Amino acid sequence: MTRQRAAEEKEQWNDTRNLRQKINRHNEKVFDRESARGDKDWAKQDAAQDTFDKCQQSANVNAYWEPNTLRCLDRRTELPIRLRPLEREDLRFVHQLDNNASVMRYWFEEPYEAFVELSDLYDKHIHDQSERRFVIDCNGVNAGLVELVEIDHIHRRAEFQIIITPEFQGKGLASRAAKLAMDYGFTVLNLYKLYLIVDKENDKAVHIYKKLGFIVEGELIHEFFINGQYRDAIRMCIFQQQFLAQKTPEKTLLKPTAQ
Fold first, then answer.
1. What ranges do the domains of the chain cover?
2. Active site residue 64
3. pLDDT in tens, the chain (259 residues)
4. Which residues on neighbouring strands pair with residue 72, listed in sequence order?
5. Is 3.40.630.30 the CATH classification of the domain at 79-247?
6. Which residues form a coiled coil (predicted)?
7. Is the Cβ–Cβ distance between 52 and 74 less than 8 Å?
8. Given 122, 192, 209, 230, which residue is catalytic?
9. Is residue 142 within 8 Å of 136, Cβ to Cβ?
């Protein structure tokens, strides 16, 4: 090993050690997982993230911010994900999600669907150009679904939807998968606008969407009937130019294969 190579490795090791030390100091100052989940003081969380960003920049080492736990992780320990087109063999996985009440409440859907009905829908829409449905693949395990539906190629818009399985929630996958799908919609499909509808009381989701760049378009009064009562919803959107302007390269994220 040359002297220059040895010096470079020593410098890299020192950078990594310094980052870990700063991460540990930062983690000591933030809330634990339980308090973070119940904390709606988003300004406090944003301030903590700003502190981490400065830490990362000063160490010049790639790291990962985990917002749900207010903790920082080395990006090399981050779960790798990719989006792949929904296939017939994924229908059992989709069927499980469709019948999970805790999951489907985020899509304002009844948690009931027969497998044969789901299979028929798949056959009916397999060549439908008005939708793109992807499975979120995390190390070979299905972690959720992300969809672009109601695609209008004339007006260049589509509705965005995402579901993360309960066992993968709280790991930062939602934001990363959303960015992949948004990138696909704006750069591959050349859409002008993506929009979504979210429960007005789902503060956590609204906050994440705003961090992704979505803005509130309006409020829908008594839009959905869930658990015996009507609920208000918020429609949010993001435009192609806005997304591309704020886009930064993510080397760890794999772009989905075109359907």
1. 1-76, 79-247
2. no
3. 566 666 666 666 666 566 656 655 555 554 444 344 444 555 555 555 555 555 544 444 444 444 433 344 444 446 788 999 999 999 888 888 876 655 555 555 555 567 777 788 788 877 788 999 999 998 889 999 999 999 999 999 999 999 998 888 888 889 999 999 999 999 999 999 999 999 998 888 899 999 999 999 999 999 888 778 898 999 999 999 999 998 765 443 444 554 4
4. 65
5. yes
6. none
7. no
8. 209
9. yes
